Please model this.
Amino acid sequence: MTTTGIWHPFTQMKSFEPLGAVVEAKGAWLTLSDGRRILDGISSWWVTNHGHSHPKIAKAISDQAHQFDQVILADFGHGPAAQLAERLADILPGELQHVFYSDDGSTSVEVAIKMTVQARANQNEGHRKRIVTFDGAYHGDTVGAMSVSARGVFNEAFQHLLFDVDSLPYNDIPALQSFFAEHGAEVNAVIVEPLIQGAGGMRFSTPDFIAELDRLCEQHGAYWIADEVMTGLGRAGTMFAVQQANAVPDVICVSKGITGGTLPLGLTICNPEIYARFLGADKSQAFLHGHSYTGNPIACAAALASLELFQEEQTLDRVAQITSRYEHIASQFAALPNTKNIRYRGGIFAYEVDGGGGGYLDPTGRKIRDKVFEQGLYIRPLGNTVYLMPPFCISTEDLDWALGLMLEATRDL
Ligand SMILES: Cc1ncc(COP(=O)(O)O)c(C=O)c1O
Model:
């Protein structure tokens, strides 16, 4: 198959050969043009939760597309965006209820950063300048999102364009406490991937870490932004990861799984305190930000259908079943001499494999990917971090098969 014309994401095009061309995707499986069936072991970059081409979401998309498609959200409202905002306010913790729509995970983060910065500016709190982030963080590829992400291979070339942040060690409560003791009054906002850092290597934090962050921010008047682009919508085992810490952020970023993985949509949802800071007599205090496709009705309709499916299909119970299969097999991975840090949470199973120098450019994970792909499983390790994150509709049989393939490929490395 030729790839002429497509510049693939995160790909060195010089040596690139695509794995195949997808002609159909149903449930947890992809079908390629040569007839091969491939299990989608990473939910197509962490977006697919109920399975590919779910009939309920497909129907919602089709119905909405026939009713009306994109309409400008600056001057008009519409049902799908209003209902989705209402529905999210119901299921989100605390008073998170003001929904700003954008297009993807990165834009939801850009919006969150700009929102907290302008919220301070609007109230003459310009002294609160510090933006705090964590080592290993990944929040996206736009310039603001790169600025709050860990510096390294993803953003090396852009260092001079990125704004300064305070980067603290992830999952380190004493470091957090001592930072706040010294600088708490200068902090504008902290941004964190709660419970699991995704692209940084599936690094886990304890719920206590998130709870302490919540407490410190409250105590020092700092905002905190939960980036749940990956962890949200069941991926960490609960609807939102912050719920496991009984923590309520001031702003939450949601994307990826919100439409069930069917259409791009980003949401930045804040509490009334932040929202109120933008209210004023004229436009100067308003949030002068927006995107052409803001609040896309078709994507909102897909999201509403996807949220209904969480109820109808008891999706979180399915996630719990997936976690229990991980629990069942973890000791077999731990027994291998070349693996470490076997861990699982919600729909994610991850471990590190020895072989290269570690980190994103370590080629070891790629060898495992190639081996399991030959047998029909698609995974995409992050350097030497190998992980499985299938759609929640995966059958127990398919899940056990996938884990078995990964175990065998890792053992035979
Ligand atoms: C936690 C987190 N935030 C933001 C993003 C960026 O999302 P997108 O790729 O949709 O721009 C990602 C993508 O993986 C992510 O994992």
The first strand starts at residue 22 and ends at 26. The two ends are 29 Å apart (CA to CA). The chain has a mean pLDDT of 97. The chain has two domains: 13-53+313-411, 57-312.
